[in-house]
Amino acid sequence: MGRLRKLLIPGVDKKLLVRDAVKTMPELTRRRFITAGTSLGALTLLTGCDVVDSSSAEELLKKVSKFNDAVQAWMFNPDALAPTFPESMITKPFPFNAYYDLDDAPEIAGADWKLEVRGLVDNKKSWTLDELYKLPQVKQVTRHICVEGWSAIGSWTGTPLRDFLKLVGADTRAKYVWFQCADKDGYNSPLDMRTALHPQTQMTFKFGDEILPRAYGFPMKIRVPTKLGFKNPKYVLSMEVTNDYKGGYWEDQGYNSFSGS
Fold first, then answer.
1. What is the domain partition of the chain in residue ranges?
2. What CATH architecture applies to the domain 87-253?
3. CA dihedral over 132, 138, 139, 143, signed as positive or negative
4. Per-residue model confidence as pLDDT tens digits over 165-184
């Protein structure tokens, strides 16, 4: 009862507080938060903030505004699928997206490239592109959503990442799959294991039924339609199954690591 009384301090309108907090959330996850019916009590448990006065209310809002990884992971439904679309809705031309110009995109010789597999896996062999092309593949037409506010629909074909992780004997109890890429400045990005095992998370080898173009990540990108675009690494050189959080190019600059629905 003591905790309940502390939450009922006069002057703190609980409904308005939650409503304002939800406004600070990314659009991708706001709907899931509302659907879950999350209350002020749940927010206090998730953020560790007691609403005892105006300053503590501001602290709660600050933490929700940052929308930390724990909250997003709590709301993530590993069975929920991102929307799919007919091929007639594919965006043409599909935009190039990166923090550099297309002229600066990596140029990788497919014949020389190998995917390095590291960490908590039984089979650490390197995979050639020809070997990867022989794996069973599926097509998905899904929307790419950029953190800058634009989106585009594309057709992606490749091997579900969860199938590959099973093939190499990955420890799926581990926390992350971490990708190192060939982009300038050493692009890298972690993917939480539940998202790595999502049925739509894909090792992509084709765009629009053609071999993946340089602009979209040749020889391989990781397509994650449940995440923002910067969580879809391109020009992948290696993947590592690990319990260690290794950061990432954008994550190290303050972007949220979960960044998904």
1. 9-38, 87-253
2. Alpha-Beta Complex (3.90)
3. negative
4. 999 999 999 999 999 999 98
